[in-house]
């Protein structure tokens, strides 16, 4: 059978463990040797104890646990060729030339570069007597499949990333908790949620929690938005509401591209409406805790699909990302999705918000 390895990279997300479990078990079920690479790309570069053969029970009892049991890192060494050379050598020595990368767009870009460089890395290893000619021959191709693990749901090419649904649950729980105390004291809460440059979490949480106002990067408000916000909240209060919830995506910006800070919004409401207003920044609680049922199932489906994609890959097949399209898991070209994701970031930086939304929507 083939050998494959799985690693998690970049920021963690609930559901990564469920994906790991599915990959290990599907791989073993299909007769593969499955390795776990600890600490992301760093473990691949460092080798040794960071690369370990898994068995069926290595992934028992983890399906619902948040985080990733094999660790994750943002690795500097892998960004340089010498680091990638070491990683290639380690993989060859373990007999691995099939990889599943669970991470965000940065991690998947790294994986793609690694695949592109593979032949030249092996050539260099051969010339410097670090691998044998037989090894180069045997492992001449590297197959890569990506799974997108990120609470942000910011990746073009999949309707949902692994972790976004769990983070959304966490946010909703927090909003529900805040609402009760806000009601008692007739307060307004400005709640800041994660998502980097993507407003998915704030938007979906706003819909699910009946928030009064939402600010997301994709739809920067026009000048004078402060007046509109205050008017809206004032109307709410006049009609008998005892509280207000304003949800701000951490990446929210105005039309000039300047960040909209939660404290600024709080001060506006406090000073203009004389409403007792507080800021709650949810932070990393959004990325922790157990995975939702949806994420467990999504990650399990994607993990199983990733192994099939690897085993069906031919030397000249392009690396793919396993994605969700509607309710169907499918494959999309890895680089195309990464490029699209980067194009969204560029459109946002260029303040072409319409284009950013179109690009996101077309995937
Ligand atoms: O990408 C996931 C994410 O949690 C973002 O929502 C957030 O901006 C960022 O990572 C935080 O990064 P770190 O965990 O390194 O502080």
UniProtKB/TrEMBL annotation:
Binding residues for Mg(2+), per the UniProt record? Answer: 105
Q: Please give the residue ranges the record annotates as the region N-terminal catalytic PFK domain 1.
A: 1-363
Q: Where does substrate bind?
A: 150-152, 187, 194-196, 250, 278, 284-287
Top-level division of the source organism's lineage: Eukaryota
Ranges where the Phosphofructokinase domain occurs: 4-309
Localization of this protein: Cytoplasm
Q: Coiled-coil ranges per the record?
A: none
Q: Where is the active site?
A: 152 (proton acceptor)
Binding-site residues, ATP: 11, 74-75, 104-107
Q: How does it assemble?
A: Homotetramer.
Q: What does this protein do?
A: Catalyzes the phosphorylation of D-fructose 6-phosphate to fructose 1,6-bisphosphate by ATP, the first committing step of glycolysis.
Q: Which family does it belong to?
A: Belongs to the phosphofructokinase type A (PFKA) family. ATP-dependent PFK group I subfamily. Eukaryotic two domain clade 'E' sub-subfamily.
Which protein are we looking at? Answer: ATP-dependent 6-phosphofructokinase
According to the record, which residues of the full protein are present here? 63 to 425 of 834
